[in-house]
Automatic annotation (TrEMBL):
Swiss-Prot/TrEMBL keywords: Methyltransferase, S-adenosyl-L-methionine, Transferase, tRNA processing
Pfam families reported in the protein's UniProt record: GCD14
GO biological process, alphabetically ordered: tRNA methylation
Cellular component GO terms held in the UniProt record: tRNA (m1A) methyltransferase complex
Single GO MF descriptor: tRNA (adenine(58)-N1)-methyltransferase activity
CDD domains on file: AdoMet_MTases
Protein name: tRNA (Adenine57-N1/adenine58-N1)-methyltransferase
Amino acid sequence: MALLLVRDDREYLLERGERLETDLGILEVPEDAAAGEVVTTHLDEGFTVRELRGPDCFNHFERTGAPMMPRDVGLIMGHTGVSESDTVLDAGTGTGVLAAYMGRAGADVITYEQDAEFADVARENMELAGVDEQVDVRTGDVTENLDVGPVDVLTLDTEDAATVVEHAADLLTPGGCLAVYSPFVEQAREVARTARGVGLEGVETLETIQREMDFDDRGSRPSTAGVGHTGFLTFARRE
């Protein structure tokens, strides 16, 4: 697993034994570097070692597009209860933020990414997060690989998610959970309709909105900078 080297507003993601050249000097990360330890450059400038956590994956993974936001990841983790001993089928890997979170929770994740270059980047990201043994990044179309299963959780971030949801009753174990991220409400509507059509229970779609709070001498109120909409999440469960 990689480590974060932190100083003020600077953060560097490095492997143990890796060498970094900065304007503060050359930094070589010791093989035995531990969280909380301060390592110094050859100019005696210190950086604090920090273990990688979920938000750091979002901030420092190499990106192949817009990664899933932590607010959406949190809802998926909370609504599906992904945990140790679960098997997850995921599609639309992208940067791999969601897959990494689920792997860090102890689940065994099989995730499909159609773009081979994106899949290679995701594999590197899983190594950085230390979950490459938990997360199996596969190149391909999940609709052509639905013989995987049964799984405890099915997570989808693909345009053709409804096509996969048609098979959810067979893919999921009894009580297993479905979570689908949709950027457009029309896709979310189709996913919800399909989920009900195949007999899934508790089908609900949520719009994810997050507003930051502004605090100043005049008072406190939600920020006027923007609504903070990301997308739509549809959840359901097999009986």
